[in-house]
């Protein structure tokens, strides 16, 4: 008597249509979780620069959104240091490269 192994065919019956649909939905959610870095034109960047300079000089709170690890993150607070040569600023203990900044807003007093 010989053993007839059907290979992977014996496992295909375990996957119900609901399982396949949920796996496809999960894959699409994972694919959409990663964002693309927003492009910033020179006019926007000059606006961001002036807001950063004003907030640093006056000590005013500001909100900075930056793009890191495929997502946009946000930090609010007072800008502690600005390093124009290194292209980095520090706000509430978070070092942010100028290249990562995607949005700057001054907080209302």
Quick gist of this model?
With 109 residues, the protein is α+β, with helices and mostly antiparallel strands. The chain has helices at residues 9-12, 17-33, 42-58, and strands spanning 62-68, 71-77, 79-83, 88-91, 94-97, 101-106.
Task: Map the helices and strands.
Blueprint: H1 9-12, H2 17-33, H3 42-58, E1 62-68, E2 71-77, E3 79-83, E4 88-91, E5 94-97, E6 101-106
Antiparallel strand pairs: 1-2, 1-6, 3-4, 4-5
Pfam family, one: YolD
Protein name: Phage DNA polymerase component YolD
Organism: Bacillus sonorensis L12
Q: What is the rounded distance between the termini?
A: 86 Å
| Biggest beta-sheet profile | 3 strands, antiparallel
Mean pLDDT: 85
Q: Count of helices? A: 3
Cα gyration radius (Å): 25 Å
**Spans where pLDDT lies below 50 across 5 or more residues:** none
Helix share of residues? 25-40%
- Count of β-strands: 6
CATH topology of the domain at 42-106: SH3 type barrels
- Percent of residues in β-strands: 25-35%
Structure overview:
The protein has a domain at 42-106: Roll (SH3 type barrels). With 109 residues, it is of the alpha+beta class. The model has no long low-confidence stretch (mean pLDDT 85). The chain is built from three helices and six strands.
